[in-house]
Design a protein that fits this description.
By secondary structure, the chain is of the alpha+beta class. It is 25% helix and 29% strand. InterPro entries: ATP-grasp (IPR011761), BC-like_N (IPR005481), Biotin_carboxylase_complex (IPR050856), Biotin_carboxylation_dom (IPR011764), Biotin_COase_C (IPR005482), Biotin_lipoyl (IPR000089), CPAse_ATP-bd (IPR005479), PreATP-grasp_dom_sf (IPR016185).
Length: 588
């Protein structure tokens, strides 16, 4: 076993990996961007180094910088977590070429599964059921529209390098194809540096069920059962559970056999997840393989008793799997809610800002994987996750009851959160009865009647408290320390933010509000970068028409016209930064 691991990630997954390393007696090295100098994940590690963005768009994408820190810190292995460089085959090769251990699958397996078109071909050759679709790139909207006409709409357009719900759009008619094509290709380019698209027939109202696998370098491959991830918004997961209420032992065995067959076909090594769609007749179809640890790995750990991150570390060290397939059993039920800094009442608009109040729930069967605390800043530069809340019970009913209790205990101030939405979902008969499908949130309008969160004014509108700066030396290491003159944390939280005006504790009641003023002003509900302006000055629009697309916290948000009218005073342009409360246009 290697002795020191560099964790090439941030936030809750960096702490999760650090905890597994600590239990195995391994030293950890963290990295942090300049704005996260005092972040919990940096403090948790045995050593932490600042990393600049370099030629990358974000510091955590700076591959050469990461390798330089690994050499400086004496790290022998690199764990990428998920996101960022976790599924980057070129970075994995660079790690190996530098003489370091890559805690993940071989670069060739990453590349094979990372190209979704190639992955479809390999899955078909391995006998895995596929959704009707193309095994080659779709070059033009016209070609895509012709496929839709042949298969029948709706049509799914997907980025070849995509994943996590990004680079995925659905066209329900031929008229919707051009916009869906442009949006999917644009997102593929921005997130994966690859605008190539392929097409599939879109399966209506499926369940999203995935199989967790582990494979070692000695030919051992097992699956750990399934997770269901059908509660989504914009094709991105919000709630996951294991096992799936729709899967019986026979279906689990067949899906597991398909998953392990594909893993063997690409000589897979490490932890991985194969994602499937499950239709109303219990037919399953391969979607993609994620060659990394998943956000929702926690629920599989809770029902199998297997620490997946420790398994990754041991596999990377060359150890064989200590389990046989027949020894894997699922006990009880686990549910994970992603607690994000988003306002469900405003279409899940991200709400970056400072957490001014924070109290986690506890008690039997409750687990928190997080990296948040009072004073922590939710940056618009990264995703919106605050923490993952996991509840385990002896059966699904007990897991639901514990999750509802824990959500009621969870206090977060200063930013909006998805807690009220999760409370609404956990009380909804569709979820309680196990009938959730990937479109049910939008179809049933879950969360539409939640009132917008009451938030404090933006931090830049509030004078920051006065500080005096000191340099503190501990055990030969120097730290910059800021002491604030006002010792009352309620009066002056870190970064100058004001205390929250409300606590999101009980399930709210009432209706939401549109982002439009009485004078026709269209106001931005989020802070981010304008990716696209869909209208011109003087254009006539209908209520609901797309005005612009704003990227915030790794999410694309469509801003629509609140009413019929003419676009006046258009105040945004592609590439510009826009703040919460800024005027986009007037619809008069």
């Amino acid at each position: 076993m290697f002795r020191t691991v560099l964790i090439a990630n941030r936030g809750e997954i960096a702490i999760r990996i650090g905890r597994a390393c600590r239990e195995l007696g391994l030293a950890t090295v963290a990295i942090y961007g300049e704005e996260e100098r005092d972040a919990p994940h940096a403090r948790y590690a045995d050593a932490a180094f600042v990393i600049e963005a370099g030629e990358a768009t974000r510091p955590y994408l700076n591959g050469p910088g990461l390798l330089a820190i690994a050499r400086r810190a004496g790290a022998e292995a690199i764990h990428p977590g998920y996101g960022f460089l976790a599924e980057n085959a070129e970075f994995a090769r660079a790690v190996l070429d530098a003489g370091l251990i890559w805690i993940g699958p071989a670069p060739d397996a990453i590349a094979a599964m990372g190209d979704k078109i190639a992955a479809r071909k390999l899955a078909g050759e391995a006998g895995v059921p596929l959704v009707p679709g193309t095994n080659a790139a779709v070059a033009t909207p016209e070609e895509a529209a012709a496929l839709g006409a042949g298969w029948g709409f709706p049509l799914a357009l997907k980025a070849a390098g995509g994943g996590g719900g990004r680079g995925f759009r659905v066209a329900r008619t031929a008229a919707e194809v051009p916009d869906a094509f442009a949006a999917a290709a644009g997102e593929g380019q921005r997130f994966f540096n690859n605008p190539t698209l392929y097409a599939e027939k879109y399966i209506e109202a499926p369940k999203h069920v995935e199989i967790q696998i582990l494979a070692d370098r000695h030919g051992g491959v097992i699956h750990l059962g399934e997770r269901e991830c059908s509660t989504q918004r914009r094709h991105q997961k919000l709630i996951e559970e294991a096992p799936s209420p729709a899967v019986d032992a026979d279906l689990r065995a067949r899906m597991g056999a398909a998953a392990t067959a594909l893993a063997r076909a690409v000589s897979y090594e490490g932890a991985g997840t194969l994602e499937f769609l499950l239709d109303a007749d219990k037919n399953f179809y391969f979607m993609e393989m994620n060659t990394r640890i998943q956000v929702e790995h926690t629920v599989t750990e809770e029902v199998t008793g297997i620490d997946l991150v420790k398994a990754q570390l041991r596999i990377a060290a060359g150890e064989p799997l200590p389990w046989r397939q027949e020894e894997i059993a699922l006990r009880g039920h686990a549910i994970e809610c992603r607690i994000n800094a988003e306002d469900p009442a405003r279409g899940f608009a991200p709400t970056p800002g400072t957490i001014t109040e924070y109290k986690e729930p506890g008690g039997a069967g409750i687990r928190i994987d997080g990296a948040a605390e009072r004073g922590f800043v939710i940056s618009p530069s990264y995703d919106s996750m605050i923490a993952k809340l996991i509840a385990r019970g002896s059966d699904r009913g007990e897991a639901i009851a514990r999750m509802r209790r824990a959500l009621g205990e969870y206090l977060i101030g200063g930013v909006a959160s998805t807690i009220p939405f999760h409370q609404a979902v956990l009380a909804h008969p569709v979820f309680v009865e196990g009938r959730a499908a990937t479109d049910w949130i939008e179809r049933d309008g879950v969360g539409r009647d939640l009132p917008p969160a009451e938030l404090p004014p933006a931090a830049e509108d509030t004078p920051a408290p006065q500080a005096r700066e000191y340099t503190l030396e501990v055990n030969g290491k120097r730290f910059a320390v800021r002491l604030f003159a006002d010792a009352d944390p309620a009066a002056s939280p870190p970064n100058g933010a004001r205390p929250a005006t409300s606590r999101q504790r009980a399930t709210p009641k009432g209706g939401g509000k549109a982002a439009g003023g009485g004078d026709g002003a269209l106001i931005s509900p989020i802070q981010g970068t304008v990716l696209r302006v869909a209208v011109e000055e003087g254009a006539a629009v209908k209520a609901g028409a797309l005005i612009c697309v704003v990227e915030a916290m790794k999410m694309e948000n469509e801003i629509a016209a609140p009413r019929d009218g003419t676009v006046r005073d258009l105040a945004v342009a592609t590439g510009e930064t826009i703040k919460i409360g800024a005027k986009i246009a007037t619809i008069a």
